[in-house]
Amino acid sequence: MFSLKEWQREHLRRQPFPAEWVPVLERNVAHYRFLSPQEQQALQGHVQVFLHEKPFEGCGGLEITDEIRVTIAAEACLLLLGGASDGFPHCNRVLVYPSAFVSTVTQVLPGGVLAKGEVARLGESWGFGNVVLSWDDALRGARALAGAHSVVLHEFAHQIDEENGAADGVPRLRGSRGVYATWARVMRQAFEQLSQEKAHISFSKEVLDTYGATHPAEFFAVASEAFFERPQALLAQHPEVYAQLKGFYRLDPLAWQQPQRSAG
Predict the structure, then answer these.
(1) Res 204 pLDDT > 50
(2) 104 SS3 class
(3) Considering the entire predicted model, what is its pTM?
(4) Which among 21, 135, 141, 257 counts the fewest CB atoms within 10 Å?
C-alpha cells in the first residue's frame, strides 16, 4: 500500500513534463541525449519529484531560473535512475552561487589547536541540510560527457553516502554482511592505491581525482563521478571498483555512450 509521499511522487511522475524544459535537458545535460526513451522518461519523472521537494535559493546575487533548477536536478537525478537513493531524503534545499564561493573551515593544528580559515569551494554537502553549488561549475560539469569535474554528481553522491548516518564512503548497501566486506576490501585497496599515487606525484593518467585520497567519503564521491563521467577509463583501471558501483547504482553508464543510443 502506497504511503502519502509515495502517492504524491507517483502523481508527479505522471504529470506531463513541461515542454520548455526538454531543450534545457538536451542542451545542458550531456548524458540525457544518450539515454534510452524509457530512461529519459524516468529521469524526467525524478526531476519533477526533485523540484517539488527541494527548494532552491540563489546566493551571491544569483537569480534562480528554471534552467538552473532543471539542469541541477537532472544531473543529480542521474544517480537515482537505478534506485540507489530514495530521493536524497536528508537534503532540505539547494543553495546556488553564481560561481565559486568562500567557505569557512576549521582545521585541527598540531597540539590540538583549532584554526579557522576561508577557502574557495565549488560545492558542499551538509549531511542533514543543504547542498551548496557553484552554478558556473555545475553547468560546466553537466554539459561535458567525459573528462570534467561534475560538482553536482560529487555533492549528491555525498548525500547518498550520508543516508546511513555517516560520511564514511560506505553507503547503505543491499545484501548480507559479505556485500559490505567485499565493498570495504575493494574500495580500501583502491583508496590506498590512489593515496600512494598522490604521494609519489605520478597520477597524471589516473582516472580518479586525487582529491579522493583525502578521505574515504571523498573517494566514494570521486569514484561516483568517474563511474558516470569516465566509465570506460574507470573500468579499465579499476574493474573491481566499477563492478561495485555498477551493483550499487544498478546502472551501467557504458551503455549510455553507445552510438546507437545517440539521438543524432
Answers:
(1) no
(2) strand
(3) 0.88
(4) 257
